[in-house]
Amino acid sequence: MTNRERDSLYSQEVANMGITGNKEFERYAVVTGANKGIGLETVRQLAMSGVMVVLTARNEKRGTEALASLHESGLSNVVFHQLDVQNPDSIASLVEFVKTQFGRLDILVNNAGASGVIVDEDGLRALNIDPALWLSGKATNLVQNVIKTTNEKAEECLNINYYGCKNVTEALLPLLQLSISGANIVNVSSLRGELWRIPKEQVRKELEDIDTLTEEKIDRILESFVHDLRQNALEANGWQKMLPAYSISKATLNAYTRVLAKKYPNMRINCVHPGYVNTDINWHTGPLTVEEGAQGSVMLALLPEGGPTGCYFDRTQVAEF
Ligand SMILES: NC(=O)c1ccc[n+]([C@@H]2O[C@H](COP(=O)([O-])OP(=O)(O)OC[C@H]3O[C@@H](n4cnc5c(N)ncnc54)[C@H](OP(=O)(O)O)[C@@H]3O)[C@@H](O)[C@H]2O)c1
């Protein structure tokens, strides 16, 4: 099916639901990476609160199956559109869809994410690591034999978690600026991106100095990470040993959130660690449910005018970057 044919099908779906131009919906939302895990649950909770949600997924079959599960549970105010955050054509197609169907966007939840590693899942399970040890960073040496960073996975991780999020946001900004009460953007981050975890002092300092931080500076940090990755010199040059690409992708995502929040003071733009949640991304090692994991994203997606912006949340509480 061509992109044009697919879009006409999605538009027909919206028309059949009588949603276009329907003022019943005060808010329109897009959630990325929403075919499963925290993203799917975020869509469910937003739809439950009366928001009209576009559930997006890179894989059409997985996305439409997720949509069907929500429709079966009685939630009709959810539609599907394909979105691979790494693909510019796919992003453009989503923007066109939101523009023609809704004319604006009120909420963007950048949830899609990848771990940047290859894992021996049986080996990891056999280690039976306690969640507290896992989160403290002290499990790093324990997992070295079962969690491997490859250049391909690491670069893909940056492209999804950082550049994918940034490209989707930038493409949707003109529609977010049309939101009547100021749009809400939620960047789903991780505690792995907290600054105190970055051994490299210069990077830590650059990312925390919000007065001098720019998108160009963030790009340069990622370029230097990729340089060291390709030279097989990550640890030697002070990057995190545990999930190095994932960690820097989330640290830079947090930094981007702050830069963007300064640039668009009429919006509420925040990032959130969802908690340690039982999903595919951590090979089901997390103790929290997806219902608990989506609470932070949903709270930030629904923040009213005058709410916090440029902040990092640990679930529903403001925390240190
Ligand atoms: N679970 C945790 O404990 C935890 C902790 C901290 C942060 N997070 C963050 O929470 C977010 C959601 O993760 P999760 O725990 O729900 O994991 P998950 O179940 O593995 O979900 C990840 C989602 O991202 C999608 N995705 C990956 N690459 C994509 C791309 N190029 N374009 C569009 N979608 C893409 C996946 O789609 P496919 O099914 O097609 O792969 C999937 O829908 C991520 O940003 C993650 O970093 C999770």
UniProtKB/TrEMBL annotation:
Keywords: NADP, Oxidoreductase. It comes from the Eukaryota. InterPro entries: CBR1-like, NAD(P)-bd_dom_sf, SDR_fam. Its EC number is 1.1.1.-. It is an enzyme of class 1 (oxidoreductase). SUPFAM superfamilies: NAD(P)-binding Rossmann-fold domains. Pfam families: adh_short. Gene3D superfamilies: NAD(P)-binding Rossmann-like Domain. Signal peptide: none annotated. GO terms for molecular function: oxidoreductase activity, acting on the CH-OH group of donors, NAD or NADP as acceptor. One of its GO terms (cellular component) is membrane. Belongs to the short-chain dehydrogenases/reductases (SDR) family. This is Short-chain dehydrogenase/reductase. It comes from Actinidia chinensis var. chinensis. The lineage of its organism: Eukaryota, Viridiplantae, Streptophyta, Embryophyta, Tracheophyta.
